[in-house]
Amino acid sequence: MTQTSTSITFVVNYLAEYPNVHEQVLKEQVEIARNKGPDELLNWEDIQKMRYSWMAACEAMRLAPPAQGAFRETIKDFTYSGFTIPKGWKVGNKLINFRGQDTSLAF
């Protein structure tokens, strides 16, 4: 549940920071709502029409991923900060990109 609330928070934050994106998302949502009856719920076809909204949400999650890292398996031996990491080891990386911060791998 934490990742969902984190994602929603960043989507809303980015919509507030980028009024032109907010305007496009709102326009798309209003158009879909206009074609619905007062008591009619959204259906799968309506959701498929939300292409711009989906792209905006994906971009917000790309810029501020809800899971701030991942594990990878090394495909060859390499040296990092004077330590040799053998092929096949699992390594953790933390990817951060909050307002232009470094996105390089941090072990």
From TrEMBL:
Q: Which UniProt keywords apply?
A: Iron, Metal-binding
Q: Name one GO molecular function term.
A: oxidoreductase activity, acting on paired donors, with incorporation or reduction of molecular oxygen
Q: Does the keyword Flavoprotein apply?
A: no
GO biological process terms on file: sterol metabolic process
Q: Which residues form a coiled coil?
A: none
PANTHER family membership: BETA-AMYRIN 28-OXIDASE-LIKE (PTHR24286:SF53), CYTOCHROME P450 26 (PTHR24286)
Q: Which family does it belong to?
A: Belongs to the cytochrome P450 family.
Q: What protein does this entry describe?
A: Uncharacterized protein
Organism encoding this protein: Punica granatum (Pomegranate)
